[in-house]
Fold this protein.
Amino acid sequence: MGFLNALFGRSKPVRPDLDQLFGVPSAALTLEAAAGFRPTGLGSVCFAAVEGAAFTEVATRIRALLDADTERGGIPVEVSQDSYGYTWLLARHSPDDLPALVNDLHAVNSELEANGFGPQLLCSIVGFHNDTDRPLGLVYLYKRGTFYPFAPLPGEKRDNPLELQVKALLGNDLRLEQDLTRWFPVWGAPGMDG
């Protein structure tokens, strides 16, 4: 079957590698040094919610895990739904504590995956901004195991030159999505507002 797949141009889907998320703090150093973008302390995970007790139980455990910091003065995780019906979990940390934010995002993805809900995972986003509060997101595509930059502009437009510049900057820090048609816009995503 491998020969036929190669002959007809089909390839196996890439297995998600959630440990790729741990490359974000290194990428953040590169982004700040080379382009002036710093972490906002905001990160989100997007997934398609499903009906049923098992999913509700997992979602409750995830929320409790992320809300554990509220007892020490942290901000509870925010849950929202977008206009397409996808669920977003927004985690907040100090902009100086990017590793803790990445750990939270990894924990959410891992918990959903470990409980059989990996197919519902869409993406995770870590927010950045520059001195003029211009937003930039590093988007992790769960099903591809890759990242891409998303630089929104007012009016649901994108700063494509900035996205390509960031792609060139982060090639040694992250596994970047090479197929630009998969660089989907995530308009209004929680965590992208700085």
